[in-house]
Design a protein that fits this description.
The complex is a heterodimer of chains A (280) and B (160). Chain A is mostly helical and 280 residues long. Among the domains of chain A are: 127 residues, no CATH class; 49 residues, no CATH class. Helix content of chain A is 61%, strand content 0%. The longest helix of chain A is centred in the last third of the chain and has 30 residues. Chain B has 160 residues and is mainly alpha-helical. Chain B has one domain. Helix content of chain B is 73%, strand content 0%. Chain B is built from 7 helices and no strands. Classes of the chains: A mainly alpha (280), B mainly alpha (160). At the A-B interface, helix 8, helix 9 and helix 10 of A face helix 1, helix 2, helix 3, helix 6 and helix 7 of B. Chain B: Its main location: nucleus. Chain B: This is IBH1-like N-terminal domain-containing protein. Chain B: It comes from Brassica cretica.
Chain lengths: 280, 160
């Protein structure tokens, strides 16, 4: 493939399409990052390289450069080229409001796909990088004010104006909550598609509410006193003492073994029948 | 007899070791609200025959009182206090309407909107919330409903 763009000793360009690090990134860089960059720009990347780059970068002072290095493990000079256009404006992976241009989008796509590999180191640097990014954007006087730091990844070809970004963030929040709901509701993990999941949620809530109604009906029957309810046997005092503890144990055991409620109506049906027999 | 059981239940709550998981906290609160209320209902039998609505009312009230950190509980309390007739929870008729409307509207977004509005009707106070809030409230509403059914089952089982 391409010859290595940088060699060990210095960063003097090996071919005209590569650039020195100082041209790309005017801020001071320490040796750890430099070695990280070297590893990352290697033409045959591997996950190991990306992670070592990320690890080296994690120790770096300038966390913004790590976005460069880990994000572009093995990218060609073209990528460096595009970065050089926006050199003072840092690509902030996490902050949503900083990038406006299409080249910004492209970078984000590159960085985004790479950063999924080295995900662990990305997020904590997102904060500082967005801080550095906002500083850099002022230099370039982008019209986009920095938003709150929600982790939004713009994809290629999607609009980056303020409204769609906000909408996209909102949509992502909503789908986050939907997945959280999917975890709560039994049997919802396998369902794909908002509408079906919502269906399941509705059915589940309705069945829970119906259950509560049945149970309160039953409770009303039971509560109306031993004369009308099923014959309540005399409770020996031993049982009375353990009753509250049993109540709680029952509750927690049932909580653990949360089975589907399909069988419930029959159970209630039987019991209520029993009680009605006695009253009449 | 039953009064004694309920008194014992009340008394022995404090002896048990305190655990801090939120579902246990909720269950304790719930039973401690509901059981005395049932006892009171039981004792006050003479003025009016115990009808289903009163018990349901107490059940809902106990639910709302035990979950006051959530938005829907406030709405539920409002509903309970405004009308003595508690809201009926089963909505088989609205179910039918939903299916019909779902068939008519081919638009996917429209269907989702339909379902969201259905959800809003189910959740107390859902009409006044926006979608994000409603989704998070629904999560804890479901949890509390589950705990409530378990508690009610246990109470019913223990007194029969």
């Amino acid at each position: 493939m391409d010859p290595p763009l940088v060699n060990d000793s210095s960063f003097s360009p090996a071919n005209p399409s590569s650039y020195t690090l100082s041209e790309i990134w005017p801020f001071p860089v320490n040796d750890a990052v430099r070695s990280g960059l070297r590893l990352a720009v290697n033409s045959t990347p591997s996950d190991k390289d990306v992670s070592t780059a990320a690890a080296a970068a994690a120790a770096a002072e300038e966390s913004t450069v790590t976005d460069l290095t880990a994000g572009w493990g093995g990218r060609k000079a073209r990528a460096l080229n595009s970065e050089e256009n926006e050199s003072s404006k840092m690509v902030s992976l996490s902050s949503s409001g900083n990038e406006v241009k299409d080249s910004g989008e492209r970078k984000r796509k590159l960085c985004g796909s790479e950063s999924r590999n080295g995900d662990g180191s990305m997020k904590p640097e997102g904060e500082t990088s967005s801080g550095g990014g906002s500083k850099a954007t002022e230099q370039k006087n982008k019209p986009e004010p920095p938003k709150d730091y929600i982790h939004v990844r713009a994809r290629r070809g999607q609009a980056t104006d303020r409204h769609s970004l906000a909408e996209r963030a909102r949509r992502e929040k909503i789908s986050e909550k939907m997945t959280a709901l999917q975890d709560i509701i039994p049997g919802c993990n396998k369902i794909i598609g908002k509408a079906l999941v919502l269906d399941e949620i509705i059915n589940y809530i309705q069945s829970l509410q119906r259950q509560v109604e049945f149970l309160s009906m039953k409770l009303e029957v039971v509560n109306s006193g031993p004369s009308t309810g099923p014959t309540i046997g005399v409770f020996p005092t031993g049982d009375l003492g353990t009753l509250p503890i049993d109540l709680h144990r029952n509750i927690y055991e049932q909580q653990e073994a949360n089975e589907p409620r399909g069988s419930h109506p029959e159970w209630l049906h039987m019991q209520v029948d029993g009680s009605f027999n006695r009253t009449t | 007899m039953e009064r004694q059981i309920m008194n014992n239940k009340k008394r022995l709550f404090s002896v048990e070791p305190t655990e801090l998981s939120p579902s246990e906290v909720f269950t304790r609160k719930y039973t401690s609200h509901l059981v005395p209320a049932l006892k009171k209902l039981n004792m006050d039998k003479s003025p009016s025959p115990i009808n289903q609505l009163t018990v349901k009312h107490e059940v809902d009230k106990a639910l709302a009182l035990s979950a006051q950190e959530f938005a829907w509980s406030g709405f539920l309390l409002q509903k309970l206090s405004s009308s003595n007739n508690p809201t009926t929870t089963t909505s088989s008729s609205s179910n039918g309407a939903r299916i019909l409307e779902g068939a008519c509207k081919e638009d996917e977004d429209g269907e989702i909107e339909e379902k969201l509005s259905e959800l809003r009707k189910l959740l107390p106070g859902g009409e006044e919330m926006n979608v994000e809030e409603m989704l998070s409230e629904i999560g804890n509403y479901i949890k509390c409903l589950e705990l409530q059914t378990i508690a009610l089952k246990s109470i019913v089982q223990d007194t029969t």
